[in-house]
Every structure is written in C-alpha cells, then in structure tokens.
Amino acid sequence: MLRSALRTHLQAPKLSYRQYARNPRPSSPLSSRPPRKEVYLLKPRSLINIFLKHSPHPSLALITPALTPPLEQGSSDDANSQGDNEWLHIVQAPNLASALDHVDHILSTEAAQSQSPSPASVLPTWVVFSVLSKPPSTAYEAFAATLLALNHPQASHELFPLVHLLSAYWLANFALYAPLHSVVLRLIYAKNEPQSLHVALMLRILAQVKPANELQPMMALLLDVATRRHLDLGVRTYRAILENPATTGYIAKKVEQHMEARGYSPNLSHSHAFVRIYGLAGKRTVAARFWRRIRHGEYYGRKAEYVNDSRSQALLLEGTLRASKKPKQVSLYIKYLLKTTARADPTVRQSDQTPMLPGPSGIPKKVFMAALRVMANNLRIPSRHLLSILRSGLESLGGGTKRLWCYSVVIKGLLKRAEYDEAAGLLGEIWEERDKFSAPETTVAVEALTMAGRPDAAFRLLLSLVPERDIATGTSRLGPGDNGVLLPRTYAPAAKTIDTHAVNSFMVSLLRIGRLDAVFFIWDTMPRLFRVEPDSVSLAIVLKAARYARKNEGALQVAIADFGLGRVLPRKAQAAHEDWTKLGKDEAKTALQALLATDNKRTGTAFWRGERAGAVALRIASEVLTTNWPELRGFTAPFQAVRRNAGEQATSPMSDLLHSFASHPGDDAPVEAAHGHLYHEEQRLYFGIVPEDDMFRAWFDLLAEEDGAAQIPLILTWMRYLKVRPSRDTLATALVHWGEVTFEGPWIQRLRGGESQYIKLLKWVTKWVGRENVPGRNDTQKALMRVKWFRELGQFRAKRVADIAKERFNL
Description:
single chain; 811 residues; mainly alpha; two-stranded antiparallel sheet
C-alpha cells in the first residue's frame, strides 16, 4: 500500500517489465533449475513503444509515423500541413546517411531564405524521432543524429527523456562515451526530474552494450539518483546491471543499497552475481555473506535443489576464493567448506574418515588458479616459492589458455616485486605462443619487456597483434561551417587481443624507465599505430609525464621555446620539434621504432611539439573537457589566488596585502587560450575520454608545477558539474597546492576582516562532498610528502634495468 501510494504521489508510471521478487511464479519441480525471465535487449523500436505506452502526453501521437516506415503520403496531418513531400524523403530514406543528407539539404535551403534558421523552426518533432530510429553505420552518423536531436528544443519536456534514451542507445553502441556522459548529465539536470521509467531504461541501455570501465561512473550516478529520489528500477534492471562482466564492487554496492532502500530481497540470480562481483573485487567478507545466504536458502524465491550440487558449489567456491588476500585464508576457507559438506552429506557424516585437503594432483584447476593469483599478489611470498608452485601445477594444467593465464599471473607478481629479469626470463618460456595471448596477457608481456629494457620488443609485440587490414572511416561534415572533419579509425571494430589498456600499460612502463619522448609520441599517433583511442587513464599518464618533463628543462631550452627562437636553429636541431600528429601510419611506425631502438640513448625530453611539455599537456586536458562538454566554458573560478605560484614569495606583508585585494584577470588564461586551437589542427575528438578522479589528481599536480595553481577552484567546479566524485587523496592534493598560493599571515587576514581564500575553498569542498569525505590530517600529510619528494627530486632519471640478451627471446 505504501509503495502504491508513493508511486501515485510521484506520478511515476509503473514499469511493464518489472518482476516483483515477492510474486514468484510456480513452475517445474524443485529438482530442476527454475526458469528465469529473460532480460530482453532494448532496441530503438521497443524504447519508443515503451515510452508511448506509459506517457500520457497527447503530443506523442506526432511520432507515430516514425514507428511504421515507409510512411504513406497523407497519413500524417502534420506532414500534409507542410504542403510538400520533403518530410517523406527523410522518413522513407533507406538509411540514416541518406536521411541526414536530406536534413542537411532542407537546412541549407532554409538558411538561404532566413538569416537565423534552426532545426526547431524547420523540422517537425516526429521527423527528428524518425531520424533517431534509423540505425547508423558509422560513429559520425550516430553523433550527427544525436546533435540534431539534442538541439531540437521544439520537443516538449515530456519528449526530452525519449530523445536522451534514443541518443544514449546509439552513442553507447559506438563507444562514444564522452557524448554519452553528457547525455546522462542532461537527463539528470533536466528541470523535470526523471521518472522511474527513464532511469531504469537508461541503466538497461548502459548495461546491455559492450562492457567498458567508462560506463561504470554513469551507472553509479544513475543509481545514486534512483536511491535519492526513491525511484523503482525493477528486478530485470538489477539483473542487467549485475550480470554485466564489467560491473565492479562499487556498482554492486550501489545496487545493494538501492535494494535495501526500496525493500527488495535479492533473489538467487542476484545472490550469485553478488558472490562473483564481490569476489573479483577482493571483498571476502561480503562475498562469503552472500554465499552463506545461498547455502542456507536465505534468498527470495523458492528454494532450488540444484544450488547444492557440485557444479554450483564449485562456481561459488571460485568466486569466493578470488576475494581472499592471503594463502592462509584460502586454506582455512577450503577446510570450512569440507567441514560444512561433511555435516550436510549423510554418507560423509556416517563415515569415520576425516575430510582432508586434496593433494596437488587432486586440486581442481580453478581452485589452483585462484590460489596462485592470491600468492602472486601477496608480496611477502618469495619469488622462488611462487615459481616452484607454478612448476608443480603445470602438469595438471596441461596446455591451452589456462597455462598461459598462470604464466601471466606469476609474471605480474614478479613485476610487482621489481624482479624484472626473472619476469622477462619467464616470459621467454611462452614467447613462442605469443599469437595466443589474450588482451590481459598481452598487457603483462608488454610491461615485462619494457621494464626489462626492451621497449622496442614490446612495441613489435603490440604491432603484431594489430590487424594488417586498414579499417575504413568516413568523412562528413559536423555542421554547415565545418570542412571535412576526419573521425578516428578506432570507432570501427578493433583487434581482439589489443585494447587501450594494453597501450596504457606500455605508456606507464615507458614513463617508469624515463622515456617521456616515447610517451608523447604514442599519444599523438595512438589511433594510427594501434587503432585504439585514448581514455582518461591515457590522459593521466600524459599529464604525469609532462610533470616529470619539467625536471629536464634547461634555461636555454625554455627561452628558445618560449620566445620562438627555434626557427634560427639548424635543421637537425629542429627535427626534435617535428609535429608527430601529421605522420602517416607507416611513417609513425618507423619513427617510433627508431626512437625505441636499443642504440638510442635518449632518456627524456622536456619539450613536446616544439613547446614546453607541460603547456601542451594542460592545453590538451582543458580542450578535451571543453570540447566534449561545451557548457564548461561558461564556468568561472569561484575564488582567487593571492600569488601565482609557491615560489613567488612576497617581499613584505604589504605586498601580500596588495595581492590579496588585487584581482588576477590572467588566472583563466591557461584554460581560455586553448579554445579553438588544438582540435581544428589535429581533427581528433577524443570521444572515449570520460574524466575520472586519477586524471584530475594528475592535473592538479601539473598545474602546480606550471605555475597554474590559481586554476584549481575552476577545475574543482568542473569536477562537481561532471559528477566526478573526488577521493580524499585528490582533494588533499588540490588543497595543498591551493594553500601555497593563498596562505596569508594572521595580520593580513585580520586587516582584511574576512576569511582567507583557502578557508573559503575548504568550506566549499566540505559543502560539496560532506564533512566525512574531507581530507584529514593523515591525507594532508601524505599529500605534503608527495609534493616534497617531487620537488626535491633532481633531474628525472628513472632506474634502468640491464637489457636481456636477445637470444633469450629469439627476436
């Protein structure tokens, strides 16, 4: 009664696909597995049908012609009112490209007759929905259709959620994560709060596409909105989220919190998913809690006997063992399972034989692999013991993917122990099987080769896994004023064994061995070399590399770059300032091979594209955000700094007082100067970058090094708008750098009669994240130690490891 009354009060439509866990349907006997209601994949047609069924607004009848193409002439009163057949050409277009061409022609014709035409004044609403219902063939078509729909204000506020859902469907299917994040924010920030139907459908769209880490913050954001606004999601929405392979323990916790807030009890399917997700996340206590609920039948629904069979128990055991952090936990847990099985099984209970742990040959493969992962992650276990365990289990594993997986786990463990020679030697044992490497195994192999002093071999390994066949891309116009913007190639299907994570691992390893020039080169040529697009981790790596590059700067080099004296240098000296973004695929491949050659003794560089690396990295970071989220350009810094950098100490208290009263109109210059500079030259849009916490922490560090700490309040404002939840480490880093340019003496604060800019920002942060999430003393001390260590660091020279003999790899 309470839930029905609440739904009536909120005027939220009841979801037709919702399956209440308290009303299980009777079915087959308990000995068989109960049937499960399938979570049907959403399509544009089904999205429109669901929306039409639940929305009471009469204007929704206007989009009915979009559901039944081809449209007969005269079947729509709205079409007849136009007096011609121009809308019929759009609706009856065979594909989206043809429909967009017709739209472009109509807008161009209207532009010649009117001074300020807009899609809203030209196109009817039902025509826009007809365009959105056509499947795009390229990422450009999906992006162009989304722009057309989102910039069509003629649609009433009841239709805006449907526009967002259809746009999100195509953007998610083409991995355009940055525009997708913008669509989710627009749905949340809408004047009319989204209803249960809107949030549930958006979550199902995000959960049914290809798993990606970039989707997790958006799902967490929508789950928080549903919990805070008391919106029902439905059991099928829960299942769609929990059965997604990319779902993390953080998302599972959000789902569990929403279930508790809405009074749901997890059913058997949910409990199985919780064990798997929490096990992978390393939360052993929570995973074991759900496992005990399944064994004791403490889940909603009728009790199925198949849960107690050996196969089901093995799956639960595998998920729970992954959550263990120490080998002792694994041993104790297996003993616990044997004891509980002995109590439950009457034949074992009546036997006099005490349950014993199986020997090495009798341990199931999955149990051995889970225990091996635990031992590899535990740095207290010596490497020789880890290698002996691997050798003892190879006979039972045999060949195939399980053997390669075990090798990669042990190699990763050796890399964590900084034993690069041993890791490279172990990689040599499976080097002949490198064609069978999966994406995680390729990532580990690339890291091992690079840290062993063979980045050229790591690069050749990555290239060998990229398809030789070029993937075609289309060129089209983003608008009437743009001229042939070329989209990245990676929006087409990429290789199976290489992804952005593998390239990021390569960049991190190059950073650790001091090859900053190679890091910058890979950023500029990543789409052409590897057919993958950078993500937020890639941008964070570049920001960190630019920060370390500051240590390599010399006074003469800085003067040459800042004053544009590079033109007077000899031709050989100018080669270092070549624009890598204009290189073709073959040219970029040859250039990077020469850069990573073993006889190349370069260890680092302070410049990128002929400029200081820090300035270029800051320009790229600001341009990525302001291009994907143009509304950020209207934000201003809420607080002002007293001085521009920590080294600009005042000569007297009166000087500090003058700075505190004076404004700094140039504080926004580093961000504003980037507008309209970079992307028109490179023609790269970086749709795969969704900002995360680590990226902003690297941004704050680089701002402090580049005398741009005054920009920290503005960047924090961007974080708040983008719904990026900052960690305590990130906030502590921002506050430490901000304090260096805002702290004033007590006499000046007393004279000004107000709070310092530091205290104002601290109160603003407290209001944003809550008092419990504000950095404490330990967090601030940790951030101070990081800043101190970096500033006391001399010229960046990473520890290089001796090269491994070529014959070991047979390269």
